[in-house]
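Lab meeting, action items carried over

1. Structure of the two-component assembly. Owner: GW. Status: complete.
Input record:
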Amino acid sequence: QQPVQSPQAVILREGEDAVINCSSSKALYSVHWYRQKHGEAPVFLMILLKGGEQKGHDKISASFNEKKQQSSLYLTASQLSYSGTYFCGTERDPSGGGADGLTFGKGTHLIIQP
Amino acid sequence: DVKVTQSSRYLVKRTGEKVFLECVQDMDHENMFWYRQDPGLGLRLIYFSYDVKMKEKGDIPEGYSVSREKKERFSLILESASTNQTSMYLCASSRSYEQYFGPGTRLTVT
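Predicted assembly:
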């Protein structure tokens, strides 16, 4: 079952902050975040692991609430380059170490205006 | 620089044709994946492979098959293309948790 992302879309002015949420109906071992710019391939941003470990982007932060099965991506002081569609992904099999692929949410469109 | 390449950026095929989509990675990754991306639906996993000659069904495998004869190459096959398979197809590879995506193939079935 796909994780649910919110909001579906958000428009910001450069320098404003944004929060993108991802929630799942099943227990999560990890949450993965990707960004896709228009006409380009998705690019890995970060992974959040059960227990608090976080790996990835140094200018974007995220949280992972294991009990609520939710994750949030925080984009602070947004830049024009942050525009794109953000996807969260959950591992299909927690024991697979990522080898079994991801189930992605439907995406959140982020538009940053000057 | 890591690289995943796909054989075509755009492809137009007729209903009933057999279609091959090719994906090659140069990173010696064990894991390879095929996703399709449709507006409003996000990316959905079709098939994946964690080793040569191994293949596993993803979330939407119906109407597709795959082949992995060499570690670097993963092919998606539409045995008899249908209009509801018109979509963007993305290939990805990984060694562990980070997936590297190719540029995608936009397939139109008429």
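2. GW to write a short summary for the group page. Key points so far: The radius of gyration of chain A is 13 Å. The first strand of chain A starts at residue 4 and ends at 6.
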